[in-house]
Amino acid sequence: MKYYPFLRVSTKQQDTDRQLADLTTYATGRGWQLEAPIAETISGGKKNIARPGIQAVLTVARRGDVVLATEISRIGRDTAQVLLFLEELADRGVSVFVLNLNLTTLRSDGTRDAMAWAMLSVGAVFGQLERAGIRERVKSGVDHARTQGRIGGRRAGDVKTDEKFLTDHADVVKALGKQLTVREVMAVTGKSSGTVQKVRKLLATPLVGL
């Protein structure tokens, strides 16, 4: 079994040091020996066929191997392409581990983890929405409405996006995936009822592209 860290940034002004450091820390804590990182500097919206990093993974990964990424958005920001990549690896018996959600596509016996796939699909959708500039358009609309006196509320930037909220409360997501009650999730995670209820509501909201 080999462990391949997958790293991606969009521009040459960015670097992958933090991604590799986070993955290395996690792997070291579990006694995993990482292979040489597979890194690329490219937009996450490109097709897989045009992604040298994606193609490198598909070339070297074998059954039983694990590909690690810090976030699903590092794999890509095109939902269809991300899921196609995960599917192709799963068909080969290669698992993908996403650090910030602590989710793995395949169980130890090689079968698919349905909850992990659902959450990673949601994450991929949010990644695509972010790339399309949905956040900025929503913020612009809210700001305009405030200037017209139609709505009040917190200052711009205070409200978390749904993506960041789910990421920040990944422990709640995982607990809900085990079919625990709200009270049980609160006890396990130490989170408030409102937080658990909001996560559950977000997970139940249909998203285009799933």
From TrEMBL:
One Pfam family from the record: Resolvase
A GO MF term: DNA binding
Residue span(s) of domain Resolvase/invertase-type recombinase catalytic: 2-149
InterPro entries cross-referenced by the UniProt entry: Resolv_N, Resolvase-like_N_sf, SSR_resolvase
Domain of life: Bacteria
Coiled-coil residue spans: none
PROSITE patterns cross-referenced by the UniProt entry: RECOMBINASES_3
PANTHER family: DNA-INVERTASE FROM LAMBDOID PROPHAGE, SITE-SPECIFIC RECOMBINASE RESOLVASE FAMILY
Protein name: Recombinase family protein
